[in-house]
Design a protein that fits this description.
Layout lengths: L6 H13 L7 E3 L5 E2 L6 E4 L2 H9 L3 H9 L3 E3 L3 H11 L13 H13 L25 H12 L3 H8 L17 H15 L7 E5 L5 H10 L2 E6 L2 H13 L6 E5 L10 E7 L10 H11 E14 L11 H6 L8 H8 L4 E8 L1 H17 L1 H7 L2 H20 L2 E10 L14
Parallel strand pairs: 1-3, 5-6, 5-8, 6-7, 8-9
Antiparallel strand pairs: 1-2, 3-4, 9-11, 10-11
């Protein structure tokens, strides 16, 4: 019948209401096979009415994310092109919670759900969603351990497929886009060692040691003894195995331990690579004070952390990243981070921005995940693999756009030798 509106036409209206646009940046495929949206745009398939119901209950990135993790929405084209199209609408970048929808947009969304038979109770979230509310107050030791377990205890085999042989889960340092992930990660580890001034006989504390890559590199190449701490049992298990395989059990100790519980300082140097994001703004003074206590006079601290560049961020429990990826995680701006780290005792020696490097790193991880998709799903779950694909691809675009950055801040504790005059000491 001429003029009959298809399922895809209706879905285009609904997604337009969620995105706050009348010009849809995507082409939609409805569950009946109908198509709507601009020719040549990335295709997103909506496979179930349940996806629309999720958008009705959580009209923003959380509802769309849940539908994607559950397999109710699929991307038929390149993941980066699809997310770039979604970013162009603008609202999802800022999360787009229900409160941002105007009344007419809510009414349009509800009307579409009624016409397509999608009205009903709120669907249960996918199993991959974190629920830490009953574990205690945010950033208590027990809740921090649960938050770390949610993200890192999802299978070492899965992480090996995504990260590759380096097993480093933080921003690499690329000489050029053609460097290769493993070489770029080794360059990052070596840069950290040089910034910290490591030498034979030095004692290093690696806070948030992951699978032990930094500890192994420092012990192998700089002759230091290392204590690596993590809250992830699975990380510690593999890290110890890797340390033993490298013949470094006399040099490297891996502990399952909260940074607040470390009491066997002093250390000549402390590395904290990709860990401060888990600390939380309110706990940062305690974090800095504890690391300061653990440093010997003249010792150095390197803090490597993601920053939020688009103004001041606050922790929001209803974002996709908080529910599925980094529960209780919190990003600080670079200025705020430096202000919290520096003190009369801790002098800032160097700040290095690595924003573009993280975009390259994330793209390499997505490439690994896509190339090993079936094995990655078998190693954890399809939902978990979808979470990682979504968050890593979207994050790569966020770094490329300059909304997020990542920075290494190097500090030295007062009371020891004078620091070098120029950064050529480590460059």
């Amino acid at each position: 019948m001429a003029g009959r509106r298809t399922v895809a036409d209706r879905l285009a209206e609904a997604l337009g209401a969620v995105l706050g646009t009348t010009e849809l940046p995507l082409r939609l495929r409805g569950w009946d096979g109908s198509m709507a949206g601009p020719d040549g745009a990335p295709v997103v398939a909506v496979r179930s009415r349940r996806a629309l119901r999720r958008m009705l209950w959580s009209p923003g990135q959380l509802g769309l994310g849940r539908a994607y993790v559950a397999g109710e929405i699929d991307m038929e084209d390149d993941v980066f092109a699809t997310f770039a199209a979604l970013r162009s609408a603008g609202r999802l970048v800022q999360d787009g919670p229900a409160s941002q929808l105007a009344w007419r947009e809510r009414r349009a969304l509800l009307g579409t759900a009624v016409r397509l038979g999608a009205i009903g109770p709120e669907p249960a979230p996918p199993a991959e969603e974190a629920d830490l509310g009953r574990i205690g107050r945010r950033h208590s030791r027990s809740r921090d351990a649960a938050a770390i377990s949610h993200h890192y205890d999802v299978g070492n085999d899965f992480y090996e497929l995504v990260l590759g042989p380096s097993m480093v889960y933080s921003c690499a340092v690329w000489a050029s886009p053609d460097t290769g992930l493993d070489a770029a990660q080794e360059a990052k580890l070596d840069l950290v060692c040089r910034k910290l001034g490591l030498a034979p006989g030095s004692r290093l504390l690696d806070v948030g040691c992951g699978w032990g890559s930094m500890a192994i590199h420092a012990a192998q190449h700089y002759g230091v003894t290392v204590v690596g701490i993590t809250l992830s049992e699975e990380q510690a298990r593999l890290a110890r195995k890797r340390v033993a395989g490298a013949g470094l059990t006399d040099k490297v100790e891996i502990r399952v331990q909260d940074y607040r519980a470390v009491d066997d300082g002093p250390f000549d140097a402390i590395s904290s690579i990709g860990m401060a994001e888990h600390v939380g703004r309110a706990q940062m003074p305690e974090y800095v004070a504890q690391l300061n206590r653990l440093l010997r006079p003249g010792g150095r601290l390197l803090n490597h952390a993601i920053s939020w560049n688009a103004g001041t961020s606050t922790w929001d429990p209803d974002t996709f990243i908080a529910r599925y990826v980094f529960p209780d995680g919190e990003l600080l701006g670079l200025g705020e981070m430096v202000g919290l780290l520096e003190s009369q005792d801790l002098e800032v020696l160097d700040v290095e921005a690595l924003r573009q490097h993280y975009a390259l790193t994330l793209r390499a991880w997505v490439e690994n995940l896509e190339a090993n998709w079936d094995a990655a799903v078998a190693a954890t779950s399809e939902g978990r693999a979808r979470v990682w694909r979504l968050y890593m691809a979207a994050s790569a675009l966020t770094f490329e756009a300059g909304d997020m950055g990542v920075n290494q801040v190097l500090l030295q504790k007062a009371g020891g030798e004078q620091p070098p005059l120029r950064r050529t000491a480590w460059t």
